[in-house]
Specification:
This protein has 350 residues and is α+β, with helices and mostly antiparallel strands. It contains 9 helices and 13 strands. The strands form 3 sheets. Strands 1, 2, 3, 4, 5 and 6 form a 6-stranded mixed sheet that branches. Strands 8-10-11-13-12 form a 5-stranded mixed sheet, covered by helices on one side. Strands 7-9 form a two-stranded antiparallel sheet. Helix 4 runs antiparallel to helix 5 (174-199). It comes from Ancylobacter novellus (strain ATCC 8093 / DSM 506 / JCM 20403 / CCM 1077 / IAM 12100 / NBRC 12443 / NCIMB 10456).
Length: 350
């Protein structure tokens, strides 16, 4: 193995550099006798500077620096067969908290070519490691709480959906019954999102499974004869953040409900196709049916999208809506052109 890099110092300045350093430093001979220690080292590890000169490293303090692995690495560094880079050790002292240290060491040339000198830098990372552990614990706790909240929300949505269906069976007005059914379908779509959030790693939602199950839920609640009407889903391997999946799911819900209600009044057979694909920051969501079709233009868009939920969600995703004749049927294309991170742009700040 090649000899470790050598840092050159003039002999007269070496001690001054070490002693005045703001970093905990030790200047050692080849046999690990301490030639000098920085004031920062003495202060950090509570060692009287007057007791240091002439002592071996293993004799410092109460003997806590007598670590065989560290001594072995320093010998290898002195011989040129290795060097210490970011070596982590635990400094254990009687009746004191253990401190986590990072050690770096290399040979230096202080002007005398007949002897070897070592410069050892010590960084105390105890507080940093504790902060990192605390942060990790908080993240894990937050994730557990989030999953619990999502689980409870999903259960609540299921209850709300059940109440809506019971209310729909009791009301006499066909118009009121229709509104309750529509509300039920929308609540169920949000419940599907919540189920995915509770099982998705890192809050990301894999769209193929999510949109497939969403459409299966819509079909089960709205299609009485699956042999007559069907919903097909074709989605690539895209995964999006939770808030984006909610918007996409609501768009699909609105468009599928609209197609099931209006596209096939007298047709013996019908099909709705859901598609999603992304390339870099660009993505396209499509909902196409082979029904009776609808006129294009702004008036048709307003009529087809009803409450304007789709337009609002599309604006939130910074995407454009294109309504066209699918010959036969209708095609609604939601498209976005954006950065190469694969995600729709975040909505503009209010």
């Amino acid at each position: 193995m090649s000899k470790a890099p050598i840092v050159h110092f003039e002999a007269a300045s070496t001690l001054a550099v070490v002693v005045s350093s703001n970093e905990p430093l030790l200047f050692l001979s080849e046999d690990q006798t301490v030639i000098a220690a920085s004031t920062s080292f003495c202060r950090t590890f509570e060692i009287d500077p007057a007791t240091i000169p002439g002592k071996r490293l293993r004799e410092l303090g109460d003997g806590e620096w007598a670590m065989p692995q560290l001594a072995s690495l320093l010998r290898a560094t002195a011989s040129g067969s290795a060097q210490i880079e970011a070596y982590e050790i635990d400094l254990r002292r009687p009746n004191r908290n253990t401190r986590q240290l990072v050690i770096n060491a290399r040979t230096i040339d202080d002007g005398d070519k007949d002897r070897v000198r070592l410069l050892m830098a010590v960084t105390d990372v105890t507080a940093m490691r504790a902060e990192a552990r605390l942060k990790d614990d908080l993240i894990r706790e937050k994730a557990i709480l989030m999953k619990e909240v999502q689980h409870r929300v999903a259960n609540s949505l299921q209850i709300i959906a059940s109440v809506l269906m019971q209310s729909a069976r009791r009301v006499q007005s066909e118009e009121a019954r229709g509104h309750l059914h529509n509300a039920h379908h929308r609540v169920m779509s949000i419940a599907t999102v919540q189920r995915h959030l509770s099982t998705s790693a890192g809050g990301n939602v894999e769209l193929r499974t999510y949109l497939t199950q969403l459409c299966q839920s819509l079909g089960a609640s709205m299609i009485s004869d699956p042999d007559r009407l069907s919903i097909e889903v074709t989605v690539d391997d895209s995964a999006v953040e939770a808030d984006v999946s909610i918007s996409l799911g609501l768009i699909v819900t609105e468009l599928v409900i609209n197609a099931l209600k209006h596209a096939f009044p007298d047709q013996p057979m019908g099909r709705i196709e859901i598609g999603y694909r992304s390339t870099g920051g660009d993505w396209t969501l499509s909902v196409t049916d082979n029904g009776i079709g609808m006129p294009t233009g702004s008036d048709a868009t307003k009529a087809g999208l009803g409450t304007g939920i789709v337009e609002a969600l599309a604006r939130n995703l910074r995407s454009e809506i294109q309504l066209s004749d699918a010959a036969p049927g209708t095609a609604v294309i939601i498209s976005h052109r954006g950065p190469s991170d694969g995600q729709p742009n975040a909505p503009p700040a209010a």
